[in-house]
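Dear colleagues,

As part of the handover before I leave the project, I'm documenting each prediction I ran so the next person doesn't have to rerun anything. This entry is a single chain, and its sequence is reproduced below.
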Amino acid sequence: MTVSMKAAVLHALGTPLAIERVPIPTPGEGDVLIRVIACGVCHSDVHAVDGDWERPPVLPLIPGHEVVGRVVALGPGIVERTGSVHSPSVGDLVGVPWMYSSCGTCDSCLAGMETVCSASEATGYTKPGGYAEYLVAPAAFVGRIPEDADPYELAPILCAGVTTFRALKRTGAQPGQWTTIVGVGGLGHLAVQYAKAMGFRVAAVDVSDDKLELAKSHGADLVVNAATSDPAARSAPAAGSNPTATSDPAAGSNPAATIQREIGGTHAAVVTAVAPRAFEQAIAMLRPGGTVVYVGLPGAGQDQVRASISAITNRELSIRGSSIGTRGDLEEAISFAARGLVRATIRKVPLEDVNAVLDEMRRGTLVGRVVLDLE
């Protein structure tokens, strides 16, 4: 093994990543060293590079938190076990998510909410990530990837997949009920698939016809273009919908009105978009007793939402946040994808193209997900 590796490194916030050679890390107590095969590019990476979140990343930083690779070395203290108790072995295919680690002993961790542990560390934000040929990760927090899985298609499941899967669970929606996905980007197109696999009827809202077509290809029962005067209900009438709906310019610029008219309001909504208006509109899409879960993260100064307190109270609406996923959520999310029920739409690019990809994300022009090919 060589002593150095190629990596994309952020030295100053708001500057392009530098492609350079850095030392290969050494696994510590309880860690594994992973040879990276694939790393998804997430919108959170844009926030990390631009430094527009309240808590800045640790510099210099190697971003990336949708990592699939093979274990090539074990740190001290790892006992290889098989069966129902899994400890990574050399040669195993594993995934590294955003949640690098948590303390495991606080009230949140003990209550199954390790996602909000105040002592948690984040891959590619407070710890070096997967925009590199190698990375170190705690053995207890890596996900198991089936050997017959495509590592490039599985990479986005490590963040976009598990995040939307957990958000859907946190809506409390039941099979057969309507769930609306607001924003059909890298997260949203996976959310549509998880929602269908979980038995929900799915509406998708976006401002891009290309992304709405992607949602339809993944089974969305109703699509709504939030930017046009046409209500854009481009699906065959679903149960509970109004099959005689006509063009309504007033409703067309108001996706909430379209959702209310077409399906009587949605039981649940998951917002993966980053525009503040989308979060506000999602509340108005709910039917009485409905729940909206916020997932998308706008930049600093754009994260304020206006809402009607009387509407929330009188209609008994619920607003929840959802952040990434637990280790249990991760195993379940990977299982859906490994069984072919969820499949990321991806484009593979070399590490050297990462700055161009981040620029595409800033412009909002990406359809699906981009995965860096490190193999």
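The longest strand covers residues 31-41. The chain has two domains: 4-159+325-373, 161-321.

All the best with the project,
I.
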